[in-house]
Amino acid sequence: MTDMTHRVAGKREGWVLVLASSLTIVGSVMVAPVLPKMMAEFAPTMPDAPLWVAMALTGPALAIALFAPIAGWLADRYGRVRLLTFGALLYGLLGALPALLDQLMAIVGVRLLFGCAEAIIMTCCTALIADYWSGERRLRYVNRQVIAIAVVGALFFMLGGMLGEHHWRTPFYLYLLPLLLLPFIARILWEPSRARPAEGSSPAAVQGAVSPRPLLVGFFLVCFGMIVTMAMPVNAPGLLVGIGITSSTLIGLASGLGLLSSLVGALLWPLTRRTLGVAGCNALLMALMAVGLLGVVRAPTYNLMLTAMVIHGIGSGMLVPNSMAPVMEALTQRTRGRGMGFYTGFLYIGQFVSPLVISGIAAALSSGTNMAISVLAGLSMLYAFGWLLSALVLRPRHAMQP
């Protein structure tokens, strides 16, 4: 590998990484609209088809959660760009393969392997963003990454639905499109050099040591935050039916508005972080999500429920960039792959277990989904209060520092 210390990342590298990062949301949203048609085809021959069809949607998230730390270790050992190129190739081939398969179990198996490819892409992209930029420029690209995921997710959700009108297999061919990114990944991106530490560096810097505290705080924050985030899209359709909204158009509109509001949250994040600080922003976003969850549980009308979903979405849009930035800052160049791999893993663990947490709370309290969501909202509000106390303590300390 040639020495790349003289190279400076610019907009070209940024756009490639942002587009590659957005592939991770496509993995689930493009398949969701065709699940009923998959169910109709496989249910007559498989009694447990509903379980395995659902696994075709959620299985990649579980695979990402389990494989992302391994992907991070591979990125640190063998290089980010090489692994990202391999992951993008696997993504395209494994993503399209279910269109050619006739066995549901084979489709589920391929989707799990596809999740491993997603883990490689997300881990390598976030590690390279941390490698290429620092300070405000790094935060800018982290925010663009979140915005691109929201925009591309909404676009492919619609594309998947339109193509699925023809046959449930058709949307899977769209997974071949990311193969067009391969030449840009190979030509524009470059492996960051592992420069020697400067003279006078501390022993911790020389050894590549990191403080575990900000990492553990960030991992827990994104895991719990994703549990609270996913509680909305998973349960909102059922709650809408509960107040008499059965139109699929109105339910789809509500889901789309929730996704759009998360984009608003991501756009507001830079100003919010500069105004309130990281801890203050954490307090705000957790409080917004708590208020949104309480709102959808208690809203008697469709319009009030939409308002609650927007409030929740704005908070969830701030979660990933605000939790990711301190983790990136705490990692060294030698440990960023592993660190971001664990971050990605905790993010998808939260996403995967969110329905299980709601079910567990309902079972423990012998209550319904509404009460379980209310309890989760209460826990989120308590967590927000903890971050508020942290912000009130930390900001005066920073102000007194020279």
TrEMBL record:
Gene Ontology MF term list: transmembrane transporter activity
Domain of life of the organism encoding this protein: Bacteria
Localization (cell): Endomembrane system
Membrane-crossing segments per the record: 14-32, 52-74, 81-100, 112-134, 146-164, 170-190, 215-234, 240-269, 276-296, 302-320, 341-365, 371-394
Domain Major facilitator superfamily (MFS) profile: 13-398
GO CC term (a single one): endomembrane system
UniProt xrefs under InterPro entries: MFS, MFS_dom, MFS_trans_sf
Membrane topology listed for this record: Multi-pass membrane protein
Keywords tagged on the record: Membrane, Transmembrane, Transmembrane helix, Transport
Name of the protein: MFS transporter
Organismal lineage: Bacteria, Pseudomonadati, Pseudomonadota, Gammaproteobacteria, Oceanospirillales
